[in-house]
Design goal:
The complex is a heterodimer of chains A (306) and B (202). Chain A is α/β, with parallel strands linked by helices and 306 residues long. Chain A contains 11 helices and 9 strands. In chain A, the strands form 2 sheets. Chain A has a 5-stranded parallel β-sheet with strand order 7-6-5-8-9, covered by helices on one side. A 4-stranded parallel β-sheet of chain A has the order 2-1-3-4, with helices on both faces. Chain B contains 5 helices and 8 strands, in the order βααβαββαβββαβ. Classes of the chains: A alpha/beta (306), B alpha/beta (202).
Chain lengths: 306, 202
């Protein structure tokens, strides 16, 4: 593994498989235990540096670090010196001067973790940067697919929705194709990014046509907070054409699963009855997130410092 | 213990496949005898099988795991009693993680009946510094509360760095610290053999 985890595109097949295998071993080792704690990272400090709101990612990273016995500092931009105008660089150097070994960063600007990695000596883990990447989400999605379907090679994955603003989509496209899956992107033409031609994906605008072929349908959240223009006429129309409802779920074959990275807009991109169906892995994804992040922290911090 | 280099074995094969098989048989017999002497835990079941139902053999990966399985199958062959076997990966409990590169993890698997209140015998290939055993003891503490923990090793090569000793030893080998003792097993290396070599480059 490299020193940082900045984007899923950095991971080759061996590294990605190592993370998934390590997560599976950690899962198995902790299953059914009373003491869900390992001493591995005792004395190491992990800083969660969150410039954007987050529920599951921050809590998941916090829990992962704590289960490995690391000390965790949670930093959110609100209520810190950032509101007095302190820059990302100064904030990071301050945290490092206090002895942090790893910084888990979420930032609204794409590329912020890359900049950060040039300034600090410790490891940097990207927990979502702007519309760029969210690599641990892709890793936990891949882990969930492998757990449910038993394989990743040749699995047909359909990513549906707001691809343009979705860092989850970008990370999943790169990671899943590295792992041998066939990825199809389905979105309204306005929400397909310009550079999609260079991605290892097929693009479609017709959800009904691709669903019968799919092993995995991954619904993306419509990111209203990043939309500075109108990308589709109305929520209703979006939902009718690109939302996954009970009728569309019937088009899937029996073993296909439905995923969503959360938070969901129920009734918009996914209907409540679909989100709560047996095909849905949404709750599993959250649980797997902790194991996968433990694996990432172990692989980045567990070995000898360079 | 301070072994002078004088008594160190000459490099080469230390144990053949036959030696390994004999030693596994002997340790299996010792485990049976001790279980019988203990009389097992109070209760009819335990008495009927010579105290063996109390026993769990837990291998330390990589090579302790197949050794534990072999011991269990030998005990079953001698007594007809099936023995519970498990493995405990100690990687996440090691105290030298920061001195070495990151390692891949191996299986941790315990029998369905668990280890609470039972006699756990840890099984490893080579006993050297004792640090692996300490890590395994730490791991066991998180996994349950055995009635007692014992240690069985194929080779004890000395040079302990911790107050740890083995209860069952296949072969004592007074090595020099710079030597390497390598246990090979059919399951992991395609051949049963114990080899001593000089230097760290081996």
């Amino acid at each position: 593994m490299k020193r940082h985890l900045l984007e899923a595109a950095d991971l080759d097949l061996a590294d990605a498989t190592l993370v998934l295998d390590t997560a599976a071993q950690i899962d198995a080792a902790l299953a059914g235990r009373e003491v869900k704690k390992l001493p591995t990272l005792r004395g190491r400090t992990v800083v969660n540096l969150f410039y954007e709101d987050s529920t599951r990612t921050r809590i998941s990273f916090e829990l992962a670090a704590k289960r490995l016995s690391a000390d965790v500092i949670n930093f959110s931009a609100k209520g810190s010196s950032v509101s007095k105008g302190e820059s990302l660089k100064d904030t990071a150097l301050t945290l490092e001067a206090m002895g942090s070994d790893a910084i888990v960063v979420r930032h609204g600007a794409s590329g912020a973790p890359h900049r950060l990695a040039q300034w600090v000596r410790g490891s940097v883990v990207n927990a979502g940067d702007g519309t760029h990447e969210h690599p641990t989400q892709a890793l936990l999605d891949a882990y969930t697919i492998r757990q449910r379907l038993g394989r990743l090679d040749g699995v047909r994955v359909v990513l549906v929705g707001d691809v343009l603003h979705s860092r989850v989509a970008r990370s999943n496209v790169w990671l899943l194709s590295t792992l041998g899956a066939e990825v199809t992107v389905v979105a309204p033409p306005t929400l397909v990014p310009v550079g999609v031609g260079s991605w290892p994906v097929r693009v479609s605008y017709d959800l009904d046509a691709v669903l019968p072929e799919a092993d995995v349908v991954m619904m993306l959240r419509v990111q209203a907070e990043r939309m500075n223009a109108s990308f589709f006429p109305s929520a209703r129309e979006y939902s009718r054409r690109y939302g996954l409802d009970a009728r569309r779920m019937e088009l899937l074959h029996d073993d296909a699963i439905v995923m969503h990275p959360g938070p969901m807009n129920r009734g918009m991109e996914i209907a409540a009855e679909v989100a709560d169906s047996v095909r849905s892995t949404i709750v599993e994804q959250v649980g797997n997130g902790v194991s996968v992040r433990m694996a990432v922290l172990y692989l980045l911090l567990g070995g000898a410092p360079e | 213990m301070a072994e002078p280099a004088l008594g160190a074995p000459t490099p080469g094969a230390l144990m053949s496949a036959d030696d390994v098989a004999r030693v596994v048989d002997r340790v299996a017999h010792q485990l049976i005898e001790r279980a019988a002497a203990r009389g097992g835990v109070p209760g009819a079941d335990a008495a009927a099988d010579g105290g063996l139902s109390d026993l769990v053999l837990v291998g330390i990966p990589t090579r302790g795991a197949p050794l534990a399985r072999r011991l269990a199958s030998r005990i079953e062959a001698f007594t007809g009693t099936a023995i519970d076997v498990g493995t405990v990966d100690i990687t996440l409990y090691r105290d030298d993680l920061r001195l070495r590169g990151v390692r891949a993890l191996e299986d941790t698997r315990l029998p369905d009946a668990g280890i609470d209140g039972r006699l756990v015998v840890l099984v490893d290939d080579v006993l050297f510094s004792g640090r692996s055993v300490r890590a395994a003891l730490d791991a066991l503490r998180d996994l349950g509360r055995p009635r007692a923990v014992q240690l069985a090793v194929l080779v004890d090569r000395g040079h302990r760095e911790l107050p740890i000793r083995a209860d069952y030893v296949g072969k004592n080998v007074p090595t020099s610290r710079s030597q390497q003792v390598k246990v090979k097993l059919v399951e992991t290396d395609g051949v049963d053999q114990v080899v001593v070599s000089d230097g760290a480059g081996a």
